[in-house]
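Dear H.,

Thanks for agreeing to be a second pair of eyes. The structure we're designing against is below in token form, covering all 446 positions.
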């Protein structure tokens, strides 16, 4: 286990009233012995379960993979150069089967029935952007695509593990942004976002997702350019850590666009063609750094961290620290908390993907709430969102094969009736850029 993940696990276990540890061994479908470890602890108001699995033949050389036991158990083997390999343990009866019996040490938790289990996320396994794999083999793409299809169509999100973006790169960006947020207000405002350009710093309370009159307390820095208007003079090394992470995210996004096409039975390049200019002129994809400052007790009415919204583009990749607060809305409108799975990156659907796919992948509504517990509230939260947007001039019309016959537009028509999306009122989508600008006007209107 990497040292930072080990540190997080220790911290979580130490602050948990009770915890349990269950070690077991079994064999995988190829007959190799596997060491299994379940760690359960109380994290806020949920019982969190982390599942670690390792090939017990060679513990030194293996990469630990984290799996939630309520999900299908799938393992991505340590990525050999140039190849991706996913092994499924379904046939062993772990995935989707009965809950592992892990009562040891947890018997004393009387209130267990009142606690919710974090079971709402379907695991997506993933591949390695920092390695050499640009074009994974077709069978792997298909397998991951099937998982992603299920996760995005049912929940609008998935957790990606073994994605290949090193935790220390993420941490370096958190640190650089901390230093930026510590600068005097005047210095920060030198880099402020000036509409209609999306690049730049946005101070707490300026940007509002929520339609209600609620102040949203966060510092954000939207990074749309990697070569200008970055606070390198004030925070040494800012540009290099940000650029390196953005490039990894971009590589991951490119792989996912391929997987996404496969998940909808489209040609592999289908989405790549319309996302060919990320971080260049003509595309609004952006990496957003977020820092939510600590909030004292008692909670101030009318203040939140991030109001309810769906992201505007194709999809978002989100890295978050272990402070929590992110919640997602299910199709029954109920909000549930996203547990923290150390080292994972969350992918969630955006509005343009929902329009494109005729709501096969509905846009996920989400928010970041102020933690109830004073101890957690008094800590800051860091996250990094990588928003993947289509090239500006892309017309967003539902993919015909995902429409019913009755919905299919007449030939030559470029406006689109959109059954379930937020555009139902206006009925028309023109280009990705127009959609985005409309959303920015709403978000930044004071
Ligand atoms: O900070 C987070 O976890 C979420 C941020 C977010 O949803 C956004 O900026 O669109
Ligand atoms: Fe968001």
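And this is the sequence the design step returned. I haven't edited it by hand at all.
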């Amino acid at each position: 286990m990497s040292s930072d993940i080990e540190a997080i696990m220790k911290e979580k276990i130490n602050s948990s009233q009770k915890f349990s540890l269950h070690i077991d061994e079994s064999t995988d479908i190829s007959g190799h012995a596997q060491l299994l470890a379940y760690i359960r602890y109380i994290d806020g108001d949920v019982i969190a379960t982390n599942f670690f699995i390792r090939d017990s033949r060679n513990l030194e050389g293996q990469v630990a993979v984290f799996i939630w036991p309520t999900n299908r158990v799938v393992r991505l083997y340590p990525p050999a150069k140039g190849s991706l390999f996913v092994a499924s343990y379904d046939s062993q009866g772990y995935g989707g089967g009965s809950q592992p019996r892990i009562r040891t040490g947890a018997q004393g938790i009387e209130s267990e029935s009142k606690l919710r289990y974090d079971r709402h996320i379907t695991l997506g396994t993933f591949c390695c952007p920092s390695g050499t794999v640009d074009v994974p083999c077709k069978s792997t793409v298909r397998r991951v695509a099937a998982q992603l299809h299920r996760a995005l169509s049912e929940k609008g999100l998935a957790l990606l593990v073994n994605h290949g973006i090193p935790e220390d790169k993420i941490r370096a960006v958190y640190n650089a942004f901390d230093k930026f947020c510590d600068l005097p207000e005047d210095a920060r405002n030198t880099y402020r976002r000036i509409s209609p350009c999306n690049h730049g710093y946005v101070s707490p309370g300026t940007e509002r997702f929520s339609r209600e009159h609620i102040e949203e307390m966060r510092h954000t820095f939207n990074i749309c350019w990697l070569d200008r208007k970055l606070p390198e003079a004030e925070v040494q090394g800012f540009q290099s850590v940000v650029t390196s992470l953005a490039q990894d995210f971009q590589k991951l996004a490119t792989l996912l666009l391929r997987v996404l096409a496969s998940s909808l039975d489209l040609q592999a390049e289908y989405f790549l063609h319309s996302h060919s200019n990320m971080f260049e002129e003509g595309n609004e994809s952006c990496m957003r750094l977020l820092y939510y400052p600590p909030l004292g007790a008692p909670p101030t009415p009318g203040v939140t961290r991030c109001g309810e919204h769906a992201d505007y583009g194709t999809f978002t990749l989100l890295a978050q620290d272990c402070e929590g607060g992110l919640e997602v809305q299910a199709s029954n409108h109920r909000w549930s908390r996203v547990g923290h799975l150390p080292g994972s990156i969350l992918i969630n659907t955006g509005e343009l993907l929902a329009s494109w796919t005729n709501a096969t992948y509905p846009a996920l509504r989400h928010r970041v709430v102020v933690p109830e517990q004073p101890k957690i509230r008094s800590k800051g939260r860091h996250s990094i969102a990588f928003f993947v947007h289509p090239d500006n001039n892309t017309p967003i019309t539902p993919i015909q094969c995902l429409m019913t016959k009755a919905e299919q537009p007449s030939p030559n028509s470029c406006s689109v009736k959109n059954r379930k999306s937020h555009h139902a009122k206006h009925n028309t989508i023109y280009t990705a850029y127009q959609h985005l600008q409309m959303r920015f006007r709403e978000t930044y209107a004071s």
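Two observations from my side: The two ends are 46 Å apart (CA to CA). Residues 1-55+72-77 form one domain.

Warmly,
E.
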